[in-house]
Design a protein that fits this description.
The chain has one helix at about 1-20, and strands spanning about 30-40, 45-55, 55-60, 65-75, 80-85, 95-100, 105-110, 120-125. The protein has about 130 residues and is mainly beta. It has one domain: Lipocalin, CATH 2.40.128.
């Protein structure tokens, strides 16, 4: 009887500790981003801006601020991925990269989904 009471209290204590354990806070990527992209291995020099919206939606803008494309984004750990399609086009792009919470920066590669030979690198900064 005494052993079962001790076992019961140990189980309750273990469950209490696990229930109180805090989840690691996820970074908030929502907001305005700007940066550059480049073809192949060229240094990214073409300007781009994004609006990452809550709920995983993305908007991409031309340098003059005109909305260019919409799509989706997600972050899994520090792995960022977004896919968007320019308006009135049949192709779409995928951007995959690594997010650095310390610098609020995403660096990675982009590709046209329909023709993966079209692609390069990108670097984006949260504003």
């Amino acid at each position: 009887m005494k052993i079962s009471k001790i076992a019961f209290f140990l189980v309750v204590a273990a469950l209490s500790i696990m229930a109180c354990k805090k989840d690691e806070a996820k970074p908030n990527l929502s907001g305005a981003w700007q940066g550059n992209w480049g073809f192949n291995t060229d240094v990214p020099t073409y300007y781009e801006s994004w609006s990452l919206l809550d709920g995983g939606q993305i908007q991409s803008f031309y340098p003059d601020g005109t909305l260019y494309a919409t799509g989706t984004w997600k972050l899994n750990g520090d792995n960022f991925e977004c896919t968007y399609r320019p308006f009135n086009e049949t192709y779409h792009y995928t951007f995959t990269g690594s997010y650095d919470d310390g610098t609020k920066k995403i660096d990675g590669d982009w590709r046209q989904v329909e023709d993966p030979s079209i692609g390069g690198t990108f670097s984006m900064f949260k504003q």
